[in-house]
Specification:
Number of strands: 0
Order of helices and strands: HHHHHHH
Shape: elongated
Oligomer: single chain
Distance between the termini: 75 Å
Mean pLDDT: 79
Number of helices: 7
Strand content: under 5%
Helix content: over 70%
Length: 132
């Protein structure tokens, strides 16, 4: 019934071909709507997977420290509480940084936000390497 109504509403020959090859109203609506994405369905799924993996990886890396906390404390001549403090600080920064970076990239752009974040990361790693 709905399919027949859609066929009557459509007047272009191309629309009629689409309507004849589709089976359900949902297929008709999907076929007639313009495509607002340059990515196909598998590319979209891959983007979601990579994004989810990147979001998970940040918190998963903190779990790598937990079995080694005692060895790290002994090797660095510090207390277990200080090692726990560094892991907690890392998780706080990992949780807050995306919100700050998103605001920064909305105002200035993604490329300057990435370059600034990478520069901070590079300077922090150089500073840590020289501290040891």
């Amino acid at each position: 019934m709905e399919l027949q109504r859609k066929q009557k509403e459509s007047d272009s020959p191309d629309d009629q071909k689409i309507l004849q090859t589709t089976k359900t109203v949902a297929d008709v609506n999907e076929a007639l709507e313009p495509n607002y994405s340059a990515f196909n369905i598998w590319q979209k799924r891959w983007i979601v997977f990579v994004s989810a993996f990147a979001a998970w990886f940040s918190t998963a890396s903190s779990f790598l420290f937990f079995p080694a906390i005692e060895s790290l404390a002994h090797g660095l001549n510090t207390s277990i509480q200080n090692i726990n403090l560094t892991v907690t600080s890392y998780l706080i920064v990992a949780g807050v940084a995306p919100a700050l970076t998103a605001t920064f990239s909305d105002r200035i752009g993604r490329r300057p936000a990435f370059i600034t974040s990478f520069a901070i990361f590079l300077a922090a790693n150089i500073g840590l390497a020289k501290a040891i």
